[in-house]
Amino acid sequence: MKIEVDIYKEIRMGALRGESQRSIAKRLGISRPTVKKYYDGSSHPESRKSYERDPDIVTDEVKSFILECFDLDKRENVKKQKHTAKKIYDRLVKEKGFTGGESTIRKAVKALREEQKVPPQSNVPLSYEPGEAVQIDWGEATVYLSNEKTKLYTFCARLCYSCDIFVQVFKSANEESFLEAQQRMFDFFGGIPVRLIFDNAKVAVKEGFGIYAKPQKRYLSFSAHYAFNLDFCNPAKGNEKGLVENLVGYSRRNFLVPIPRTSNIEELNQRLWDDCLKYREKHHIAGRVHSVKTMYTEELPYLSSIPSFRFDTSKSIVATVDDYSTVRYEKNYYSVPTKYLRKEVTVKGYGNTIRVIYQNTEIAAHSRAYHSGHTQYQLEHYIDLIEKKPRSVFNAKPVKQNVTSELLKWGKELPGGNREMVKLLRLCLDYGEEYILDLKRSIPSTTAPSVDMIRTYLNKPVNVPTIKMSKEVPVEPVDLNQYDKKYGMVVH
């Protein structure tokens, strides 16, 4: 008898309380055999035993006949004219006098076909010509960026002939990062291969997959400029770009362990660039005769040259500088110098940076933020305004966001108040905050350090090397009578 889960639960709960099977059966109004079946939890009402029976009627002779049909199909090699399970059954009835059911033969045919199949191989050994292709892929890694645990995206690339590698990290795997990463890749390899192998990620593919994939409009434009062919893999076929699939894990284990701690992403990318150069110089792949460096040297002449015009990989907008001297890009704000207030500027979003352009001149650069509602201020953009409005100095967001608490505390202790703090900020911008604080720390604690005192340390007298000269300079006597004779002078 099949019971519902709520009845089953009541049986099990009653069993745990020590209630007898008779009592449970009476209370729930079901039979005692049913209670007995589920009482100790040895079975479950939703479980069903699979029905398996190896019919005696499928004899060795029948199996042999089925295999003969398979062999005949193989020899004929006509794809659309092969034995179906029904056809085999019909022939068995007609030629062998088989008396069993069609479903029995169907099961036997299916089982024997499975045995005949060749197991798929994970990877097929491939060979590439120099400069023929590069494989690219995205991975993920965790780093400490300004002491904050951050997930970044690793762009990995590998030349198919030499197996030379390239790895960089980005805050997002968006279109801007994708194009910028490939541009850097061409710079690193010193040229462009004939084709680029990638999966069907939306950042590259608009619709379709594999050979039917349609690239995104900007990616098509990018590939046209750098003159390479696009080769997209089939869905769930990582083995089609196995070289770079392995690199994703290799780079994470070898370049990013222990977890890197860095103040900015540019510094980390420079380290990764250097790691890739070391890999090129020293790595030798097992099973290959030559080193990566030797094969890369062979491959380099086959790479196409990089065009002189640099494709703009950014996502650009035109924005007006607001009254707080900031511009909005997507959902965040970035500061510019106050002299550009209410002017129209171009904001370019790259993978990791934001650059603000006014009349073909870059006026500001920021680290790109991907969350929302954040404003990035740079103190140098506001220092001229703060000098005109010194009373705002301790409440100004550009000050609070960019200077340390140690500097703010010192500024509040200065005898000149707000104006002295503004002077101190100017010194920090000119010489660096850490250097100014080091000078302050070097002053004895019994002395209250002022801005003028710090200036005296900045303007120490220059040591001019002394040139020692002899006390007496020898002078040879000259007979001037020779000049008098030459020019007809009267000699007295």
UniProtKB/TrEMBL annotation:
Query: Region (Disordered) spans which residues?
Result: 35-54
Pfam families on file? Mu-transpos_C_2
Query: From the Swiss-Prot or TrEMBL record, what is one GO molecular function term?
Result: nucleic acid binding
Q: Name one GO biological process term.
A: DNA integration
Residue spans with biased composition (Basic and acidic residues)? 37-54
Provide the Integrase catalytic domain boundaries. 126-305
| UniProt-listed NCBIfam families | transpos_IS21
Supply the PANTHER family for this chain.
INTEGRASE PROTEIN (PTHR35004:SF7), TRANSPOSASE RV3428C-RELATED (PTHR35004)
Q: Which family does it belong to?
A: Belongs to the transposase IS21/IS408/IS1162 family.
Protein name from the UniProt record: IS21 family transposase
